[in-house]
Amino acid sequence: MDEQTAARTAGEKVGVRKADTRAGTADVRAGKTDAPAGTADERAGGGAPEAIALKVTLASEHHLEGVPKIELARRHGLSRFQVARLLDEARAEGIVRIEVVDPTAAGRDLSPLAERLGISSVTVAIDRPGEVPRAALARQVAGLLLRHLREGGRLGVAWSRTLMHLPAALDALPAADIVQLVGPVSTAGHSTAQSSALVHELGARSGGQVWALPTPLIVDSPQVAASLRSMDEVRTALDAADGLDVATVSVGAWADGASTLWSRLRPAEQQRALDAGVVAEICGILLGENGAVWHSAVEDRVIGVRPDQLRRARVIAAIPAVGHPEAVLAAARSGLVDDIVLAPELAEQVEALLG
């Protein structure tokens, strides 16, 4: 069975509790107890210490050693009906506890890769049956978010085609304020209304204050951008990012279809960025292969969170850019992100690039 198939298969763990009795303790690890004296009916009935010890013995032999019920009946002088009833009672009384474990729930931790990248964590998101890869990434981002966001904190959220799945992965949020990190964007199949709806939906769940950013990600000129930044509601939203505790962002590769900013630039601007060595984009911030921010006229037209604001927060980044491991390296080296969530294929590509 390959790793991905195994990861999708829910495992079953059965725990058998030791029962302390006045007559002694049934040792689950050994799976054996001395059968108490008396008839089968006497031993099988009631909640007496002898009956509890028998249930522990049957449960241990059946669940831990795999002994069939018919063999248990023969071994202990019971009927098959009695064995089945005692095993059912063992579950009902908490002697046997069954837990179904979803191996995909927590993702796969790649601590060695995180150490090589110089960040806090790398999590591989494994798709569940019927789940699209971006939703799997958002599910793992949600788990990290709940781990690090505290009551009364401030969460920054950047819309992306990946993070739009975030609300579906969150049952609840701690009471926290929500800050929109970049202006609304529209991409093929997604509207600017969806972008704004993300922060408001998260704000409704957290019950905190929401700072929405009612401007496009990028505008036509620095003059227009400056004018919009001077508006009270825009300025207060941008300033609110100064106090971020946790932020969720998406990292795009600098290529057509891999970055929401790419399509907003003219072909000559796209090429200038490529010629300058840009390989990744985070919230409209362009990064070179070594993680350095590329300063150009483009950033004067972008309205959103600044690099220094992100560096002060705990930043969880979803990276859907399969085929672009250089974008992962740039994000890690930039100092802008702390935790990275990516697909298994991209993790392998990053490890291969590192050599």
Q: What does it look like?
A:
- Helix 3 (49-64) packs across helix 5 and helix 4 (69-76) packs across helix 5.
- The protein has helices spanning 3-8, 40-44, 49-64, 69-76, 80-92, 111-117, 133-148, 166-169, 192-206, 222-229, 232-240, 267-275, 307-311, 325-334, 344-354, and strands spanning 11-16, 20-21, 24-25, 96-101, 108-109, 121-124, 154-157, 177-180, 210-211, 246-253, 278-282, 285-288, 314-319, 339-342.
- The strands form 3 sheets. Strands 5, 6, 7, 8, 9, 10, 11, 12, 13 and 14 form a 10-stranded mixed β-sheet that branches.
- With 355 residues, it is an alpha/beta fold.
- 44% of the residues are buried.
- Residues 1-14, 17-37 and 187-191 have low confidence and may be disordered.
- 40% of the residues lie in helices and 17% in strands.
- The chain has 15 helices and 14 strands.
Sequence-ordered SSE layout with sheet pairings:
Elements: H1 3-8, E1 11-16, E2 20-21, E3 24-25, H2 40-44, H3 49-64, H4 69-76, H5 80-92, E4 96-101, E5 108-109, H6 111-117, E6 121-124, H7 133-148, E7 154-157, H8 166-169, E8 177-180, H9 192-206, E9 210-211, H10 222-229, H11 232-240, E10 246-253, H12 267-275, E11 278-282, E12 285-288, H13 307-311, E13 314-319, H14 325-334, E14 339-342, H15 344-354
Parallel strand pairs: 6-14, 7-8, 7-10, 8-9, 10-13, 13-14
Antiparallel strand pairs: 1-4, 2-3, 5-6, 10-11, 11-12
Helix pairs in contact: 3-5, 4-5, 14-15
Keywords:
disordered N terminus, two-stranded antiparallel sheet, alpha/beta, 10-stranded mixed sheet, 355 residues, single chain
